[in-house]
Amino acid sequence: MIRSAAARAIHARTLAKAALPTYSLSTSKPLMRLASGTRFAVTYTKLLDKVLGINVHEKTQVVLDDSASKRRIPKQPKTHGIPACRVAFHSFQLHRMDFFVKWCCRAAFFMGMPCSGVISLPRKIRRWTVLKSPFVHKSKQEVFERRTYKRVVYIYDTNPEVVQKWLDYIGKNAVAGVGMKYWLNEYEPLDIGARIKRALKTGDTQDVDPLTLKQARHVKSFTVEGRKYGRGRYRGLPMFRQQELEKMAMYVADQLRANPQANIEELTKVALKVNGTPKRPSKHVHHMTSKKERARQARRAEKAKQREAKKPSPE
């Protein structure tokens, strides 16, 4: 293609504007690198001065656009500052984790959730020293290390259902090599205990979540079974009042303060003898024992009677 001198001058001027002169041109190295990656060489710098009308020896300062790298993550303002969720991230690759955590914060912003932003935690470094060769080559060792980077994000003033949708979304689009763990905060009304108690009696789930009611029933059955087991298992042990227990505890504490090297078991035995007045177990406790336990106690009583009968009389 044949071009005129004016067209060649305009083309050279546009190339010079798009160029990134990392160093000034000289006769020894007349080379410029363009932004597109192409290169072109010139024979004489004076010819460029005449064609372009600029001094190519002058060092031009290149100003890069850092607005994208310095751009802050947008945040929704807090209304009350009540924490709703805490998400912890950990990874061995810092660049992947930072990209994913910033993406999660942007997703929280567009879903209308106030976010704390990226909070950096101290990194954890673990090292292992391994022998390169056995026997006399003890000095030939290799050291391996593993660096774990951690980040935390807090979510405030958000409905638990919205938080759960956000967690499902970031979990579905998780980046490989980044671990994630979260803690949800749930708040209940002040009269939740009375509501659960009323729901256990009536079976109405209007004021109580069905899952909460199911858990309450499980805890109630577990508590009843535990009481039965405790009464049957430990019914022969002495029972003390709260004042007596406090008195014995103060006695043991005073003795240990006077002699720190004393044996706490011996001091407890002395406190039981001196200050302890055990209360008799109630008479109706044996009704709560199981059939196997009552049969075992009956066999023990029979064996005790047989041993007493076999003993020779003192006369």
Describe the structure.
The chain is an alpha+beta fold and 315 residues long. It has helices at residues 5-18, 45-52, 94-110, 160-172, 192-202, 210-233, 242-258, 264-274, 291-310; strands at 31-33, 39-41, 83-91, 119-131, 141-156, 178-184. The strands form two sheets. A four-stranded antiparallel sheet has the order 4-5-3-6. The protein is elongated, with a radius of gyration of 41 Å. Mean pLDDT is 76; it is low at 18-43, 62-66 and 283-288.
Averaging pLDDT over every residue, what do you get? Answer: 76
Question: What is the SS-derived class?
Answer: alpha+beta
Q: Largest beta sheet: what is the strand line-up?
A: 4-5-3-6
Helix content: 40-55%
Low-pLDDT segments, ≥5 res: 18-43, 62-66, 283-288
Q: Identify the quaternary structure here.
A: single chain
Q: Please count the helical segments.
A: 9
Q: State the end-to-end distance.
A: 142 Å
Ordered list of secondary-structure elements with their pairings:
Blueprint (H helix, E strand, L loop, with lengths): L4 H14 L12 E3 L5 E3 L3 H8 L30 E9 L2 H17 L8 E13 L9 E16 L3 H13 L5 E7 L7 H11 L7 H24 L8 H17 L5 H11 L16 H20 L5
Antiparallel strand pairs: 1-2, 3-5, 3-6, 4-5
Helix pairs in contact: 7-8
